[in-house]
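User: Here's a chain of 97 residues. Predict its fold as tokens.
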Amino acid sequence: MNKAILAFALASLSTVAVAAEFKGYIIDEKCSKMASMKGDVDCANKCIKAGSPAVLVTDAGKVYKIAEQDKVVPLAGKQVTITGKAKGDTISVDNVK
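Assistant: Prediction complete.
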């Protein structure tokens, strides 16, 4: 019985969102695989307005989806630090600077 409880507890921990800081560039999802798009404000704004969602791309190339698009769209193409919680590859934004 104790092993089952321990297994359940460990499995539960893997789905918990943990608050952290995430640094990178806000660009559109369509262009997120192209390193040259980091910092391209005009392209990011154009593609986001055309419907491609904003994402955060880290210097290591990790792409995070953003749950609260309205908090990051004004910063399209810019380098930011997001404070929030990640669950899988999606960040719930608490603060952006």
